[in-house]
Write a structure and sequence with these properties.
The chain has 628 residues and is an alpha+beta fold. It folds into 3 domains: 5-213, Threonyl-trna Synthetase, Chain A, domain 2 (Threonyl-tRNA Synthetase, Chain A, domain 2, 2-Layer Sandwich); 255-519, BirA Bifunctional Protein, domain 2 (2-Layer Sandwich); 533-624, Anticodon-binding domain (Rossmann fold, 3-Layer(aba) Sandwich), CATH 3.40.50. The chain contains 20 helices and 27 strands. An 8-stranded mixed sheet has the order 10-14-15-22-19-18-16-17, sandwiched between helices. The protein has a 5-stranded mixed sheet with strand order 24-23-25-26-27, with helices on both faces.
């Protein structure tokens, strides 16, 4: 049978738990789900120590378990019976899970059945023995009462774990070379920092060794492209503990890239009748109570107390409530609709420390934010125009191939997570789906992924090494206009409520920059590159010519420097290459004589000799066309 890879990963988590128990007999096990690229399991090793040096013996045990073709045998018991089994196994974490299930704290309806399932890993289990009588025998003996079981039964019973399942039939369905232990991390039990800290062992797992090796190669490539390392090396951004580690500071070179992206975004919007606006970085608490951000995300918001005004303020977590106020201060009619606002604005969120990373997850987030106020009949056309912008933007960065779109809708099982009436949600979800179909988007419906105020189209793109990122988003919102009592005059001179379309093209400038640093491995397209050209004189007496060439290039707005140091030619060239300068121009006697430059293309490694005018024209064409 061809089992889904997620099921195999889940089963392998149990195999790892069994292998860890074999090597560390005193360990207590917690939980072990599958992940996007493998699985993990949380353990309490108490006084025992474990490190990645132990991975080799754990993997050896796992491969042995897989080779034994162990079977999974499932049985169910009551809550009380489950606690009795777990008590005698000294599995305190599992006992707590049962108690929480029994109390109704966990709201997953599939688990609240009054029964608890266990799985046994059994070696040499004959298929004819998988019957109710055998399971009844095992239940009666509680499995661990080994004095009542014969030698073969004790020997063949390898591992017991509480689990909702399902599982593959046996380890014969697994590939012993398809997994690899990855790293050790720390995690609090049940994600509560007041609970005990557990040891989490992560592992990679795929269908086969070929897919595993491909993933490991991608990770190695990702290390080379790490934007935190390249950003420091290329002097693009910095962090300061005095400022706050997760509020990055843009260096001059990084600001060139950021401004180029922002300017390009505005170029894509200004001819589509967007108006630029500006809003402050904080607001009174009442604004976010009305928008319901305070009700949904209060713990992620930064509060500020005005000692003079004696009032509470919040640093803004989103721009939309501010844009609602701009719309509300105008008197629009149906002839004015749609109204389109554009603002690259910084918002602030108190993200959990463990989730923060370089530029890709920070506490100051500059969204290329836009809000469109329109009529229901205009939704499809406006979404279509935004999709055109998204496609043009990501084509420029070489990310358009292979993208897909998540149609993020409500989870019908958790209506309390969302605001607004059901009929309004149905209109919004239907409108986005119709727009997705009209634009020919490769979309998938994803229940439970909607924003609290409305459904979304989330665009998923793959970078140069195959990693997937959620970047652009288009969101349809009937609820916040209602909460802010927004209106315009319709054809009958009556008040009509607008629909708000939230959209961001890059997502956030910080995160997008981090992704692009890695996507381009620090060698940016010429139009983005902070240092496009570096002139390298062969000797000191050619420095004047190099500076003359520099002036000519600067007159064409080329970002160019001259290395007039006393270093050797080879070292100058090497220094330029280490900074990923797009074009390195070597100038000496022949170049002075012929008014030319010796061109080295860092990206392609091609070398040529060109007249200055010809080189300048080539740069101008490459920049204007935004060539990759």
């Amino acid at each position: 049978m061809n089992y889904p890879v997620e099921l195999k990963r889940h089963w392998l988590a149990h195999v790892m738990a069994q292998a860890v128990q074999e090597n560390f007999p005193e360990v207590k096990i917690a939980t072990g789900p599958y992940t996007d690229d493998g699985f993990y399991y949380d353990f309490d090793f108490a006084s025992e120590e474990i490190s990645d040096k132990d991975f080799k013996k754990i993997e050896k045990s796992m491969k042995k378990i897989v080779s034994q073709n162990q079977n999974f045998v499932m049985f169910e018991v009551s809550y009380e019976e489950a606690k009795e089994i777990l008590f005698q196994m000294w599995e305190e974490f599992k006992i707590e899970l049962v108690e929480r299930l029994e109390s109704g704290e966990f709201k997953n309806k599939e688990k609240i059945t009054g029964r608890i399932s266990f799985y046994l890993n059994v070696w040499k289990w004959k298929s004819t023995e998988k019957n109710s009588a055998t399971q009844a025998f095992l239940k009666e003996k509680w499995f661990f009462a080994f004095e009542d079981m014969d030698g073969d039964q004790v020997k063949n019973l390898k591992f017991i774990d509480m689990c909702t399942g399902p599982h593959v039939e046996s380890t014969a369905n697994l590939d012993a070379n398809s997994f690899k232990l990855a790293r050790i991390a720390w995690a609090y039990w049940l994600w509560n920092s007041e609970n005990i800290q557990l040891t989490r062992i992560y592992a990679f797992a795929f269908e086969n060794k070929e897919q595993l090796d491909k993933h490991l190669h991608m990770l190695e490539e990702a290390k080379k492209r790490d934007h935190r390392i390249l950003g420091k090396k290329l002097k693009l951004f910095t962090t300061s503990d005095l400022v706050w580690s997760w509020l990055p500071l843009m260096q001059p070179k990084g600001m060139i890239i950021r401004k180029a992206i922002e300017d390009y975004l505005w170029d894509l919007h200004k001819n589509r009748w967007y108006d630029r606006v500006w809003t402050p970085h904080l607001a009174k608490e009442e604004l976010y109570q009305t928008s319901w951000h305070a009700g949904k995300y209060l713990e992620d918001m930064f509060s500020v107390y005005g000692w003079t005004s004696k009032e509470n303020f919040f640093l803004k977590p989103m721009n939309c409530p501010h844009h609602m106020q701009i719309f509300a201060d105008n008197q629009f009619s149906y002839r004015d609709m749609p109204i389109r606002y554009f603002e690259p604005a910084t918002v602030y969120r108190d993200e959990k420390t463990g989730q923060l990373s370089g530029l890709t997850r920070v506490r100051s987030i500059t969204q290329d934010d836009g809000h469109l106020f329109c009529r229901v009949s205009q939704i499809q056309e406006e979404v279509g125009a935004i999709v055109e912008i998204v496609k043009e933007f990501y084509k420029t960065f070489g990310l358009l191939e292979g993208y897909w779109v998540s149609l993020s809708v409500r989870d019908p099982e958790t209506p309390e997570k969302y605001i607004g009436w059901n009929d309004v949600w149905e209109i919004a979800e239907k409108s986005l789906e119709e727009a997705a179909k009209a634009q020919g988007l490769n979309y998938r419906e994803m229940p439970g992924e909607a924003a609290f105020y409305g459904p979304k189209l989330d665009f998923m793109f793959q970078d140069a090494i195959g990693r997937e990122w959620q970047l652009a988003t288009i969101q349809c919102d009937f609820n916040q206009p209602n909460r802010f009592e927004l209106s315009f005059k319709n054809e009958d001179n009556e008040d009509e409520q607008p629909v708000v379309i939230h959209r961001a093209i890059s997502g956030s400038l910080e995160r997008f920059m981090g992704i692009m640093i890695e996507h381009f491995a620090g060698t940016f397209p010429l139009w983005l590159a902070p240092e496009q050209v570096r002139l390298v004189p062969v000797a000191e007496n050619f420095a004047d010519y190099a500076f003359d060439v520099k002036k000519k290039l600067e007159a064409q707005w080329v970002r160019v420097t001259v290395d007039a140091s006393t270093d050797s030619l080879n070292k100058k060239v090497r220094n330029a290459e280490q900074m990923h300068v797009n074009y390195i121009l070597v100038v000496g006697e022949e170049e002075v004589k012929n008014s030319s430059v010796a061109v080295r293309n860092y990206k392609t490694k091609e070398q040529s000799v060109m007249k200055i005018e010809g080189f300048t024209e080539m740069l101008e064409s490459e920049i204007i066309e935004k060539k990759l």
